[in-house]
Amino acid sequence: MPFWRAEVCRLALFLGDVPFEDIRLSYRELLATAGPIAPFGQFPFMEVDGRRIAYTGAMARYCADVAGLTPESKSEAAQVDMIIEACSELTNVISVSMREEDREKKMEMRSILREATLPKWFSYLELQLKANKSNGFFVGDKITVADIAVWRLLGWITSGLLDGIPTNVYKNFHALTDHQERLESDSKIREWMTNHYAASSYSPTVSDKR
Length: 210
Description:
This protein has helices at 4-15, 27-37, 56-67, 74-98, 103-132, 145-157, 174-184, 187-197, and strands at 45-48, 51-54. The chain has 210 residues and is mainly alpha-helical.
């Protein structure tokens, strides 16, 4: 399954029937090309009208706009941005443990993530989900990039590729569990996932298993 940062953009465009070219690089290719072509030296990025756009929030916002997934209300649009920022921050928190090379220290960090940090963040997300009170979506009454981001972020966290993090780590957060099931049952999302990931795995660039 794919990492969430680029996938939120791909899915937004697909849901909005916006054609795009999907270019994916291997880990070796990423290392070789990040400096020369990637804005700020990092991936993912997208190119529109000859200009490159980096950072998850900017890309997700653009894709949502062109796909017709941005709420009309400015306050609701800001709520979507907030959820994207939260997903990015949680990813950065987890990534600290991925950079740790000492196995024992890594597992200590993962234990803290499992027992304290992740439950705290899951609680934050669940509170936002419940606060909307609208058909089980994070913002408004239909899918936004906020929903896609959380769905794929939790999919990565529970993929089994983060050693020490169980695949059922958010099982006690029932609103999040229901939300994940709701996204996975969406016919358009199922079409995308079936056509692209029937026999694939997460990118090694976001896994402990490089």
